Amino acid sequence: MDKIDSISVSSLADRPSLASRVYEIADTWPIFTGHDLVGSALLGRVVHEFPEYCVVATDGERVVARGLSVPFNAELEGREETPGQGWDRVLAWAFRDRVLGSPTTVASALEITIDQDYLGRGLSYRMLDAMREAVARQGHRALLAPVRPNAKHLHPRVPMAEYARRVGADGLPADPWLRVHVKAGGVIERIAPASMTFSGSLDQWRSWTGLSFDQDGDVEVPGALAPVHCDTAHDHAVYVEPNVWVRHVL
Q: Considering the chain, what is the average pLDDT of its residues?
């Protein structure tokens, strides 16, 4: 257990009673992110199926942060450690490997979410460190992460490859969340151009965003890292989210 001030960070395997409470956090995720089909089907099961790969932070009795990761086998035919379909792909592989009993070769982070009341306290660094330690305890030599840069939504039309190359005067990434990973020892490896895919009818997108979705073409949606493509003739819109693969050697 890691404890500084009033906040404790632990492996969920050490505190299984908190598995049902990790989603009590007041997060800042855009509403449409809850409609990824792979995530909708599998993400809620991660804390129960892979607790040794998950970490949780508490302040007294309050759950204030969660960190989820999963193991998968990157050596099977047709696979790689950093697939272009990123987050969706590794989550699906992890559950397929669990069902089939396949040995795992690497682990991938899925998310670190901090309660909005606890942002700006350095808790993201502690959660990342705790996740690295949890994965290392399972015998892995690396933690991969399909990182969702948290300021990219301010530049939705900038290609992710260009955005990820932006650095500050100190040479570290300009994006705050990429900066956390690199300062923690992570190395940016490549872009996952289709890390997550969200599709729905135009009425669904209107309900998720409050936007009209009444014209063909790209629509800038608050919180989205790239434009959402709207097709009025076929009554659907599709958002393909790019992420950035970062490798942490353990």
A: 96
